[in-house]
Amino acid sequence: MSLLTVTVREKRFAREAVHAIQGQAGERPPVLQDVRFELVPGDVLGVVGASGCGKSTLLRIVAGLDPDFDGEVRLDGRARRGPDRDIGVVFQEPRLFPWLTVAENVGFDLGQGHDEAWVATLLREVGLGDLGHALPRQLSGGQAQRAAIARALYTRPRVLLLDEPFSALDAFTRMRLQDLVRDVARAHGTSLLLVTHDIEEAVLLGDRVLVLGSAPGRIVREIGVALRHPRGRGSAEVSALRSRVLSALESVG
After folding, report:
1. Does 116 share its domain with 166?
2. Which residues contact 180 (CB under 8 A, 6 or more apart)?
3. Structural domain boundaries enclosing 146
4. Dist. CA 199–CA 201, nearest whole Å
5. Which residue, 133, 163, 159, 158, is CA-closest to 148?
6. Which of 145, 164, 160 is nearest to 49 (CA)?
7. CATH number at residue 206
8. Residue 82 in contact with residue 12, Cβ under 8 Å?
């Protein structure tokens, strides 16, 4: 049974952006067109594509942060517009409030109170159990992103959106957080929608990989990843799937 169904018949730039690009009034160029996919409970879907193909725009639509599109997002069959507690987001940067402690950042939930026990559980799960009283400036980049992951899980979302969450981290930290996200999502039964430039990351984490073409952004290929976890980085199976995804990207320029 489908948990999340996303249909974007068309998404165009805002007029202000078109004016900035073209320097004059004109027809808004499409960013996304004829994009449709589903997530089932526990599913991990990777999305890859060239820069500017609309990956992050697609994630903002699913997150309810960009309602200006022709289409719909359905969660459990219910059409929705705007942010939803059942959908969490991890951005490229941690985006922590610098004046709040790590624990306060994780439990920041306007009008909903602060569940200290749940915050403590999440901090332990992401390896920050002893840093709840620290301020963001006292954290490393990897630790700050761990806090951001815990914060995204605080509302117990059924779907977690990840917008290139490891792109600014060193290779070793990136690998550790990839494993962490996979393990925590499986423990919570959370579905993942991962936008990434890293093809190997999409193959390592995903059950499927969507390849987006450009101008406008559209799904040109869906590649299944029928490998059991844990998946070996650099294994022949992962390398073969990485090559398939890369070939699909190269075929659309």
Report:
1. no
2. 126, 127, 146, 149
3. 98-156
4. 5
5. 163
6. 164
7. 3.40.50.300
8. no
Same domain? For 63 and 182 the reply is yes
Cβ neighbors of 183 (< 8 A, separation 6 or more) are: none
pTM over 0.85: yes
- In this structure, is residue 181 part of a structural domain? yes
The pair of three-digit structure tokens given for residue 200, joined into one six-digit string = 């190997």
Question: Does a structural domain hold residue 93?
Answer: no
Q: Which two tokens stand for residue 247?
A: 């070939």
Taking the C-alpha atoms of residue 83 and residue 87, their distance in angstroms, rounded to an integer, is 7
Domain shared by 79 and 172, yes or no: yes
Distance CA(242)–CA(225), nearest Å, equals: 10
| 209: in domain | yes
* β-strand pairing of 44-49 with 208-213: parallel
Do residues 164 and 145 lie in contact, with contact meaning Cβ atoms separated by under 8 Å?
Answer: no
Packing angle, helices 171-188 and 141-153, rounded to 10: 20
Number of separate domains in the chain: 2
130 within 8 A of 102, measured Cβ to Cβ: no
| Location of structure tokens 């499409």 | 30
For residue 123, give both structure tokens.
């901090």
Please, what is the angle between helix 141-153 and helix 116-125, to 10°?
130
Render each residue's pLDDT in the chain as its tens digit; 253 residues: 799 999 999 999 866 555 555 555 556 679 999 999 999 999 999 999 998 899 999 999 999 999 999 999 999 999 988 899 999 999 999 999 999 999 999 999 866 778 999 999 999 999 999 999 999 999 999 999 999 999 999 999 999 999 999 988 999 999 999 999 999 999 999 999 999 999 999 999 999 999 999 989 999 999 999 999 888 888 999 999 999 999 999 988 6
* Beta pairing partners, 242: none
